[in-house]
Specification:
This is Flavin-dependent monooxygenase. The chain is α/β, with parallel strands linked by helices. The chain contains 12 helices and 17 strands. It has a 7-stranded mixed β-sheet with strand order 5-4-13-14-15-12-16, sandwiched between helices. A 5-stranded parallel β-sheet has the order 7-2-1-11-17, covered by helices on one side. Strands 8-9-10 form a 3-stranded antiparallel β-sheet, with no helix packed on it.
Length: 373
């Protein structure tokens, strides 16, 4: 009999795991608290690394489809000084497929494919039991179900994580405010040229503005500020005009085109950036494991989703190799995941300190290090 496996969370990592299990003919149940696939905006764009996210899609048999949907030109990056001077203007070569971009919604739909997701199933607690008795999953509606393995792919504030670890994410010192520009090529052609095919970034002391092109003429804008956790206290976050005014004050004196990226936003969403300790591990618990942000939440510098995708695919492959011994598969997976996650957590934590830090020259130097052969 095939094991009963539940994946909690329908983000990239959870869906990659479920899709590879499905490819190997193994049953899997995806549990998602959102009531439907379109219950909320899917988010911005992701760059999938050749040796991480793209490798996961290859394991799922989806790499060719990904390449049809992705935007290699989205790898372009322009960096400005706060006065608008162009400091760097990098564009990928015609055959550069190292980190092509794909909108999160397109990636989600690609991974969903034939999978059946049980929408509206909010997990409140996961209770490991004695070997052979399975793992109990409790839901917000009072129902309970038992699985042989529960995989926590439920993000930063994972409910599954509580079954194996008492550690919670900590504030990094950086708050991000996200806004969007719609139909930018028609409504704001000057800003469309500024952003180009990829991204434009401006770094100042302890703050930055990054704008990134998504598909369909959509641009996401991220203002990041190093501030105490309560740095936005007293600001009515539901009042778009008040948030816009605060942003323009925080970036006062910057070049007008950069301020226009903030000025013309359609809505403003604050996000306090949290992270787990770089060396987060746990004592192995039979019947439960974690992947992605649930296991190693780190600053959003391009690694998290890539790691989650690869981890989901690798875990599924290990299960497929020996479906009769889930404990051996999850132990092997955790031992493979932890050191790689620690490496990337260290890199991204240091990167955030340089990108949103007291010396803007550090951000420019980091870009040059990444682009150097």
């Amino acid at each position: 009999m095939s094991p009963r496996t539940a994946v909690v969370g329908s983000g990239p990592g959870g869906l990659a795991c479920a899709r590879v299990l499905h490819r190997h003919g193994l049953p899997v149940t995806v549990l998602e608290r959102d009531p439907s696939r379109d219950a909320r905006p899917p988010g911005g764009t992701l760059d999938l690394h050749a040796n991480l996210g793209q490798l996961a899609l290859e394991k799922a048999g989806l790499l060719a489809e990904f390449r049809k949907l992705s935007r290699p030109e989205g790898q372009a990056m322009r960096i400005l000084d706060t006065d608008g001077t162009v400091l760097r203007d990098w564009r990928p070569g015609p055959d550069d497929l190292a980190n092509p971009e794909i909108d999160r919604g397109l990636l989600r739909d690609l991974l969903l494919g034939p999978l059946e997701v049980r929408w509206g199933r909010e997990v409140t607690e996961v209770v490991p039991r004695a070997p052979g008795d399975g793992t109990l999953v409790r839901f917000s509606d009072g129902r309970e179900e038992t699985y042989d393995l529960v995989i926590g792919a439920d993000g930063a504030w994972s409910r599954v994580r509580r079954a194996v670890s008492s550690v919670v994410p900590r504030y990094t010192g950086v708050t991000l405010i996200e806004t969007s520009l719609d139909d930018v090529d028609v409504r704001h052609p000057g800003l469309a040229r500024l952003v180009g095919d990829g991204s434009v970034a401006v770094y100042g002391a302890n703050r930055s503005v990054v704008a990134q092109r998504n598909g369909g003429g959509h641009v996401k804008v991220y203002a990041q500020v190093r501030t105490p956790l309560d740095g936005l206290r007293g600001l009515d976050l539901s009042d778009a005009e008040a948030v816009r005014s605060r942003l323009l004050t925080l970036f006062d004196g910057w070049a007008e085109p950069v301020l226009d990226l903030l000025r013309h936003g359609t809505a403003y969403v604050p996000r306090t950036l949290h992270a787990l300790p770089v060396s987060h591990t746990w004592a192995h618990v039979p019947g439960v494991t974690l992947l992605g942000d649930a296991a190693h939440l780190m600053p959003p510098l391009g690694a998290g989703a890539n790691l989650a995708l690869l981890e989901g695919a690798e875990l599924a492959e290990l299960i497929a190799e020996n479906p009769g011994d889930l404990d051996e598969a999850t132990r092997a997976f955790e031992q493979r995941m932890w050191p790689r996650a620690e490496t990337w957590s260290t890199i991204t934590s240091a990167g955030l300190d340089r990108l949103v830090g007291p010396d803007p020259a550090e951000a420019l130097a980091l870009f040059d290090e990444v682009q150097s052969p």
